Q: What sequence folds into this?
């Protein structure tokens, strides 16, 4: 006698039972047991003075008698008397074992205990009940309890999950059993998504000498394939060959699918050649998998060749075959050929489904042939097929690729009239696309229709609509959308606020813009440089220079936004007013805040000072005799703008300021070189000597920056 492989656990007398079961081809039974080994009955001697029907020591006998007489009301009576107060899982197993010849009574008591008693059932209780139901061929209820047991144990570690298998083995010593229970366990694991556990159960089952059915094995192979466990699939296949379990067409198709997923089509062909030598003829499923894989790999010639081979062998192509070929042709750019094949399919009596139509529509949309795509769409509707979400998506994106969003919108409206349900995602996609293409009113109309169809527009859609309206200078309409958002407890984002504030400032409605800015701050949204520019420029446009400067200071202090563009706008406005003192005072105030003028600021500043050169001695900006030269100059860097300086006319030996003097460049060069090489600051402050007393005029020197550069060795 061949020795049986030992289990990973110790099972008393189990090896003898396994050998006996193998000889009997797994048609096994054991006598009903009155007690369970190692039981510890209640032994309180006081109970012996009680009547028999009130003695807790007799609870098992009383329950079994009640179940045998189908007197289920008596169970409630026993519970009222408190006889179940000490009822344990051990007594529960004893009752089940005594009732195993009547699976209906055992199952009734099993359900009654779970609903009436707060008893924590053990794995042994579950397994005994499962064995009883399987032995009586009540597979439906047995599988239900087995699934529950697997799920309960599945929450623990791997070792705890394996206890289900071992508990079933241990319970076989005490009750009738059928080896089909192990097939059911593999399927239960698979139904709960515990594929690895089903594989382990299969390995243990084979190790103990049990042979699973080909149906169970195919289920296991399919589960492993779906999870991508290709190596384990081949392990199962090798075990099948070792134990003599003959594969069928489903087995080979699953393994073919495994190879196709790996992407090596040539390896698939080799496998099929070997299986054909073993007598297996590929069926329609096999051919469809291979044709689909060839098409996805771009090997259309091989796919068409295989299509011709299957026709010659008498395997009639079905809808899946044609759909796979149509898909391959469309992806290869041969959409016309795909349409011819589509007509051939219809001519041969096959009724195309939505997948076939969608494949052809996708092919036309990919090639930009929207008229043909519409034709296929309406043919689809004419045959009673309703376009699905994929159909609508493909058509909408096809129109968008051609920059024809209005055509996409009209198509959606047309489909709606046909009763086609447009998804919320498509509505959202269309509305956002229309907003980005500056078609806010078309987007607004579609948003209203979306609401009428029961969809709630998102906050993002409203914000994009406001942004688009403001770009088109439809500020009042944007404010109406804002009111609608507020009524729906939606909030504007920074982009929407920025758009409305910019639009209001552009329409000289700065006061409303300021209110929105305050609302934005209260909402906790950060202000940025664009909002600063819009508000400052709006105030400057309305000649509110003081308010503009206040805003500039506010943004600098509160948000550390130092915008040179806004600064230059104010410099230009103050320069145009012709009051150098105000301009210089403004520069001082801004410098304290941290603003740094650039070349444009210097140009504006100097342009303001030039017309007033004759009155420079009357300027009281800083210490007497000091003039701030706001010329942008980096340390040994560049100098931009025009430089205006006044100096003595000692070259002519005269202290008179009555005539304009032309200053020699070398003195200016000397000063610039000295200052710019010794003071590594962005802005140079040159000390000019005060004008002579009682002078009637002044001299003014204009020196081009380019001349200064060439003299001091700098580059423009």
A:
């Amino acid at each position: 006698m061949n020795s049986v492989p030992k289990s990973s656990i110790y099972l008393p007398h189990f090896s003898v039972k396994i050998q006996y079961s193998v000889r009997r081809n797994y048609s096994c039974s054991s006598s009903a047991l009155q007690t369970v080994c190692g039981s510890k009955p209640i032994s309180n001697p006081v109970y012996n003075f009680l009547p028999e029907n009130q003695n807790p020591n007799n609870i098992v006998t009383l329950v079994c008698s009640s179940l045998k007489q189908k007197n289920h009301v008596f169970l409630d009576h026993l519970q009222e008397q408190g006889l179940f107060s000490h009822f344990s899982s051990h007594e529960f197993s004893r009752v089940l074992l005594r009732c195993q010849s009547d699976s209906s009574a055992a199952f009734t008591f099993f359900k009654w205990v779970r609903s009436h008693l707060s008893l924590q059932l053990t794995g042994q209780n579950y397994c005994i009940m499962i064995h009883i139901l399987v032995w009586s061929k009540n597979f439906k209820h047995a599988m239900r309890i087995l699934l529950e047991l697997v799920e309960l144990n599945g929450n623990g570690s791997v070792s705890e999950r394996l206890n289900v298998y071992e508990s079933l083995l241990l319970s076989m010593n005490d009750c009738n059993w059928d080896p089909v229970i192990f097939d059911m366990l593999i399927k239960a694991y698979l139904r709960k998504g515990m594929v690895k556990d089903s594989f382990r159960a299969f390995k243990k089952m084979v190790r103990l000498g049990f042979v699973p059915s080909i149906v169970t094995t195919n289920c296991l192979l399919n589960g492993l394939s779906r999870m991508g466990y290709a190596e384990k699939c081949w392990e199962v296949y090798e075990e099948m060959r070792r134990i003599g379990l003959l594969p069928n067409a489903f087995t080979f198709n699953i393994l073919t699918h495994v190879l196709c997923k790996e992407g090596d089509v040539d390896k698939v062909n080799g496998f099929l050649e070997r299986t054909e030598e073993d007598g297996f003829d590929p069926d329609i499923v096999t051919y469809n998998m291979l044709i689909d894989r060839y098409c996805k790999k771009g090997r259309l010639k091989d796919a068409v060749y295989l299509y011709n081979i299957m026709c010659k062998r008498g395997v009639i192509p079905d809808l899946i075959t044609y759909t796979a070929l149509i898909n391959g042709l469309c992806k290869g750019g041969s959409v016309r050929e795909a349409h011819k094949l589509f007509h051939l399919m219809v001519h041969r009596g096959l009724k195309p489904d939505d997948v076939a139509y969608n494949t052809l529509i996708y092919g036309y949309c990919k090639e930009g042939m929207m008229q043909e795509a519409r034709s296929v769409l309406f043919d689809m509707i004419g045959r009673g097929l309703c376009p699905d979400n994929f159909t609508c998506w493909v058509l909408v994106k096809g129109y968008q690729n051609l920059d024809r969003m209005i055509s996409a919108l009209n198509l959606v409206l047309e489909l709606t009239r046909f009763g086609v349900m447009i998804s919320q995602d498509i509505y959202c996609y269309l509305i956002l696309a229309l907003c980005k293409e500056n078609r806010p009113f078309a987007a607004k109309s579609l948003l209203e229709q979306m609401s009428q169809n029961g969809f709630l527009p998102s906050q993002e859609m409203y914000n994009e609509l406001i942004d688009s309206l403001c770009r088109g200078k439809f500020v009042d309409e944007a404010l109406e959308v804002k009111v609608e958002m507020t009524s729906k407890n939606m909030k504007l984002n920074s982009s929407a606020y920025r758009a409305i504030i910019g639009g209001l400032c552009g329409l000289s409605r700065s006061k409303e813009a300021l209110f929105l800015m305050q609302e934005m701050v209260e909402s906790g949204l950060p202000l940025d440089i664009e909002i600063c520019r819009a508000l400052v420029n709006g105030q400057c446009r309305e000649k509110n220079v003081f308010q503009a400067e206040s805003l500039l200071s506010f943004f600098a202090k509160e948000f550390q936004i130092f915008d040179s563009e806004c600064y230059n706008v104010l410099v230009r406005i103050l320069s145009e007013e012709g009051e150098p003192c105000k301009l210089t005072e403004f520069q001082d105030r801004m410098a304290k805040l941290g603003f740094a003028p650039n070349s444009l600021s210097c140009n504006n500043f100097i342009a303001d000072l030039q017309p007033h050169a004759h009155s420079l001695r009357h300027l009281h900006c800083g210490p007497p005799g000091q003039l701030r030269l706001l010329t942008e100059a980096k340390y040994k860097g560049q100098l931009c703008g025009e430089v205006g300086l006044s100096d003595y006319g000692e070259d002519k030996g005269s202290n008179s300021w009555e005539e304009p003097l032309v200053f020699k460049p070398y003195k200016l060069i000397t000063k610039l070189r000295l200052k710019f090489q010794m003071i590594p600051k962005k802005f140079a402050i040159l000390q000019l000597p005060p004008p002579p007393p009682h002078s009637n005029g002044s001299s003014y020197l204009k020196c081009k920056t380019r001349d200064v550069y060439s003299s001091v060795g700098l580059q423009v």
